[in-house]
Amino acid sequence: MSAQSLARIKPESWYRTTAHSDGITLIDEPWIKPFFRCNLWHVRGRHRDLLVDFGLGAVPLRRHVALLADRDIVGVASHTHFDHIGAASEFNCCHVHSAEAHILAEPDNARTLADMFVNDEMFDALPPEPYAHCGYKIAAPAKIMSLEDGDMIDLGNRQFEVIHTPGHSPGGIALWEAASETLISGDLIYDGPLIEDTWHSDMTDYAKSMRRLNALPVRVVHGGHFPSFSGKRLHVMIDDWLRHHDL
């Protein structure tokens, strides 16, 4: 189907929110096909909220998702591929691992993979005009804060530990809440076809990161794409992945 035949969606209908347990809400863009559709994870905290990833950015995020309108939000990019940082500039500050802070500061379409993926094949329907694939460009956030392995993100009543998970990309991170045994895993692992061959992927790092997550007593996983899944499923998937790759 060509772009000319794809419908245009009104901005107020572009995003969808789905409540999960433990004060966690999925925000996504249902008009993007599932393989390409990024999961944005919102976590309600006592003093501030957490938002992990920012989607395509073709439609203003904070303006059209009421959940994000008034609260103090800690914005975190799990890594710097385009589908995860598109609307990062709408937030006062964006946190990202130091290994990819330079990409977030200058998010060109080559390094963020937008050149490779932003085309008709991504969409079931398009953002409102004047959006066009050829004009897609990500704005850099005004302020970038670097994260390191072991850093803690404190929401007042909830604490998430930053786990550096290189492999899919050098600065990939997962967030781990030990109290609820909740893992927000980014793109290192989710319940769907994994991308292991980007320009800055590394399979040795990938295996080390997989083993590190496999050692956690995870109850539930919220991945960067596709539906959430159990910790039991995570361990099976990682074991299968390591066996398949002979790593």
From TrEMBL:
Quote the Pfam families the UniProt record gives.
Lactamase_B
| Residues annotated as domain Metallo-beta-lactamase | 37-225
Biological process (GO) annotations? antibiotic catabolic process
What the entry lists under Gene3D superfamilies is as follows: Ribonuclease Z/Hydroxyacylglutathione hydrolase-like
Q: Which family does it belong to?
A: Belongs to the metallo-beta-lactamase superfamily. Class-B beta-lactamase family.
Name the UniProt record assigns to this protein = Glyoxylase, beta-lactamase superfamily II
Give the taxonomic lineage as stored in the record: Bacteria, Pseudomonadati, Pseudomonadota, Gammaproteobacteria, Moraxellales
